[in-house]
Amino acid sequence: MNSKKIWFVCGGQHLYGTEAFSQMRSHANEIANALNEYTECKIVFKELVTTSAEITAVMRAANAEDSCVGIITWMHVFSPSKMWIEGFSLLQKPLLHLHTQYNREIPWDSIDMDFMNLNQSAHGDREHGFIGARMRLSREIVTGYWRDEDVCQSVAQWARCAAAYAFSKTLKVARFGDNMRYVAVTEGDKVEAQIKFGWSVNGYGMGDLTEVINNVSEGDVSAKMDEYNMRYEMNTNDVAAVAQQAKYEVGMRRFLDAEDCRAFTTTFEDLHGLKQLPGLAVQNMLFDGYGFGAEGDWKTSALTAVMKYMAQGLKGGTAFMEDYTYNFAGKDSAILGAHMLEVCPSVAAEKPKIEVHPLGIGGKEPPARLVFDGTDGHAVASAIIDMGDRFRMITISAQLLAISRSMPKLPVARLLWKPLPNLKTSATAWIMAGGAHHTCLSNALNENHMRTFARMCDMEFVLIDENCDLDALEKELLYNDVIYRLR
């Protein structure tokens, strides 16, 4: 992400003269540098634009520059918004309108007309805001003083989403095997997904994968085993089963890298040529940033890759997840999340253990996997579903809970969380909205990250949080249905 750039563009017009232009450039550069202290990708002051031709030129240049993932605009003075129409009609990168001003407070004793002429953001940004609304631009608006931490953090969150949006546009997903038979929610329109999100989702034969796996050398397996021993606690005597997963991982990485894929799926219904269902192999790849979806769930695989990219550098983890079973305990009711094998260890509370146990389905040898309990703290869980005429992102807010009880007969990765406002309301809302049983759970990202990314993709966004009201949600879903059908 640190190779990506956000261009900071300051708006003006020719009324003010060269001396004012010099001050405006200096101020804009200072603001960009201050914001840059909070972001992973670099914010750079690009231009002071004062004519329609200059605006159009910078927007075209942004479109053509791969390292540029977004544009921040700020009006230091009044910049007539008709000058921005052509440039904005061409812009293909995410847009943030920063509504701020250079000075924090009014200089009561010295303020004069020269100061007023130079510091016109209070109405210059309103003119700029009108053209964004008039052109129906999908944009983020951040208001406040540019040195305040909440403003800087809001810009930084948007910048992460802009970088993830650019990553999404080039994402390739490999499907090893098809979707789990008869399952509806993991299906979807792959062509529309590529048009909407940029995801190129393609299937590959298990025979092609196993050929690569079978050519993995003992030296490569040994090196991967050393990595496992460094990262995790070896809690099994079945070293051969662990080595099998190491072989799978080396082979899958080699295959995916050759196809330039950063996300993939498997299914236990198609393991031709494999002795085990990939478990530890998948978990370790997730830890390194690959996206994954079980049972052929390519939407969750892609979303996991995007969210992991978005979360890099932040404290916390991001994991493929599934709601497995409930603990109905009144106001303390909670969800136990897990999966057969493939939950990312980035959300572990302690050092995960490598164990080998029978799986119970699939008819294969007992696979090695990481066993751990999840951490506590605030988290979000998101899923993307195909509604037939559009994609919908559903996001819940949740409180991760430390697991106080042992589960010796459940040797998988386990997380416990209380969805907000409570299990009954959240689960009802999730089902009402058509939410999937697979999600991507993150205690590194928050609700605003997910909302902003959905807005960039022009995707319907449904939030289920502590303010959720089922009657209001039912109306929201109905209104959304009407709006998207009209569009």
Secondary-structure map with pairings?
Layout: E1 5-11, H1 17-36, E2 42-49, H2 52-64, E3 68-75, H3 85-90, E4 95-99, H4 113-118, H5 121-134, E5 139-143, H6 149-168, E6 172-176, H7 190-197, E7 200-204, H8 206-214, H9 218-231, E8 233-234, H10 239-258, E9 263-265, H11 280-287, E10 291-293, H12 298-311, E11 318-327, E12 334-338, E13 353-356, E14 368-373, E15 377-386, E16 391-401, E17 413-419, H13 423-433, E18 438-442, H14 447-456, E19 460-464, H15 470-486
Parallel strand pairs: 1-2, 1-3, 3-4, 4-5, 6-7, 6-9, 8-13, 9-10, 14-17, 16-19
Antiparallel strand pairs: 11-12, 11-18, 12-17, 13-14, 15-16, 15-18, 16-17
How does this model look, in words?
The chain has 487 residues and is of the alpha/beta class. Helix content is 39%, strand content 23%. It has 15 helices and 19 strands. It has helices at residues 17-36, 52-64, 85-90, 113-118, 121-134, 149-168, 190-197, 206-214, 218-231, 239-258, 280-287, 298-311, 423-433, 447-456, 470-486; strands at residues 5-11, 42-49, 68-75, 95-99, 139-143, 172-176, 200-204, 233-234, 263-265, 291-293, 318-327, 334-338, 353-356, 368-373, 377-386, 391-401, 413-419, 438-442, 460-464. The protein has a 6-stranded antiparallel beta barrel. Strand 1, helix 1 and strand 2 form a beta-alpha-beta unit. The longest helix has 20 residues, at 17-36. The mean pLDDT is 96.
